[in-house]
Amino acid sequence: MQSLWLIFQLLFCLFLGFILARRLPTWLEKIAFKILPYFTYILLVAIAIEFAQTLHSIAQPAQIVSDAISISFATSIGAFLCCYVLFKAIGFQPTQGKVSAELLIGSLLNISYAFIALALGYGLSELFAYFNYQLHVSTWYLLLVFMLLIGLDLAYSPLDRSWLNWKILLVPIGCIIGSLLGAIICSFIMTNISLKDLIMLSQGYGFYSMTGIVVTELRNAHLGSIALINDLFREIFAILFMYMIGWRYPRSAISSAGATAMDVTLPMVKQACGNEFIPHAMVSGFVLSVLAPIAVSILAAL
């Protein structure tokens, strides 16, 4: 019952933000949109504080990083290949494009901000612990505020009905199926994590600011830490795929980007893949951004 209540809170805040869009005062919406880009880093600082406080009770912290990177690589590759196979089956051929080293460096720099926020939170926790004081931060309530802001943002996403055709929907479908296949493959290699938990971890689609907290609340800090690092690296792998082979296989690269395709990696889609693939990124990112909290919450509660 507690799990269902937590899931309800999460989804309620997401849809409340979606419903409140265009109904709030203009000045309040402007504040919300200004806060949103920075709220992720606030959330990551809070996550790191909680993580630092539980780190000493977690066995083999190095194993957490190793497991997370393995899962992220397998699910990212799975999404890429599955999307490729789906579009290959209906006769689509590779395309051509160009890349920019400057934009690649800028994108990786943005990812580094997430790691800086995590390091800051960890450092703050250790500093206060040194003076025998424990910081108390409610990451769950911060996440609820974040989901409200995400719902507000989704309502303003420039989606066009003409984009919703079955061919474009193959991009998020490829991500979903490929992520599941990646989790299944990992189950043959990683015996320390059950298949059910691997499937749960695979459904974050790069939504790192959400999955770590949800999994920690509904399961435990160990799996929550893996979920956080896993989705951080999924975003990194998405950026690398976008610039290494996205110009040749744009739909597959967008699929590997998961939920980040409509925000963080969207500028890379435009530059590396071309404007004609922006609808693919917007639709895929939108679908997966809505699906991720639902799938992770339900699977974590089972």
The proportion of residues forming helix, as a percent range, comes to over 70%
How far apart the termini lie comes to: 11 Å
Strand content range: under 5%
Low-confidence segments: none
What is the rounded Rg?
A: 19 Å
Average of the residue pLDDT scores: 84
The gist of it:
The chain is mainly α.
Explain what you see.
This protein is mainly alpha-helical. 75% of the residues lie in helices and 0% in strands. The protein has helices spanning 2-20, 26-55, 61-89, 101-130, 139-155, 170-189, 195-202, 208-218, 221-244, 250-257, 266-273, 278-301. The mean pLDDT is 84.
Describe the protein's topology:
Blueprint (H helix, E strand, L loop, with lengths): L1 H19 L5 H30 L5 H29 L11 H30 L8 H17 L14 H20 L5 H8 L5 H11 L2 H24 L5 H8 L8 H8 L4 H24 L1
Keywords:
single chain; 302 residues; mainly alpha
